[in-house]
Amino acid sequence: MKKSELKELYQMMFPDYPDIVNITQLQTMLSISRRLAYKLVDDGYIKAIKISNTFKIPKVNVIEFVMDQNTNSN
């Protein structure tokens, strides 16, 4: 994905969420269970940083995951 495309998507997708989200926000963004949210992060499908005992997930990584899923389903 090109930087210009990503920047455009960033402005359109999930505008009500901060630049860095937590697991609870990820659940809401993707309408998934807590267990699946942790699995996606633990398995590396969505890149996150673990600080102490909390995952910090850049919103751009969530957008890339969603776009990859959309591409793979076609």
Report on this structure.
Helix content is 55%, strand content 14%. It is of the alpha+beta class. It has one domain: Arc Repressor Mutant, subunit A (Orthogonal Bundle), CATH 1.10.10. A hairpin with a 2-residue loop joins strand 2 and strand 3 (54-58). Helix 2 crosses helix 3 (34-42). The two termini are 16 Å apart.
Summarize the structure.
55% of the residues lie in helices and 14% in strands. The chain has helices spanning 3-12, 23-30, 34-42, 59-72; strands at residues 20-21, 49-51, 54-58.
Element layout with pairings:
Elements: H1 3-12, E1 20-21, H2 23-30, H3 34-42, E2 49-51, E3 54-58, H4 59-72
Antiparallel strand pairs: 1-3, 2-3
Helix pairs in contact: 2-3
Quote the beta fraction.
5-15%
CATH topology: Arc Repressor Mutant, subunit A
First CA to last CA: what distance? 16 Å
Order of helices and strands: HEHHEEH
Biggest sheet layout: 3 strands, antiparallel
CATH class call: Mainly Alpha
Q: Detail the poorly predicted runs.
A: none
Helix content: 55-70%
Q: In the CATH classification, which architecture applies?
A: Orthogonal Bundle
Mean pLDDT: 90
Count the DSSP helices. Answer: 4
Overall shape: it is globular
Spatial strand arrangement across the major sheet: 1-3-2
Query: Which class best fits the helix and strand makeup?
Result: alpha+beta
Tell me the count of domains: 1
**What is the alpha-carbon Rg in Å?**
12 Å
Number of strands: 3
Keywords:
74 residues, alpha+beta, Arc Repressor Mutant, subunit A, three-stranded antiparallel β-sheet, 55% helix
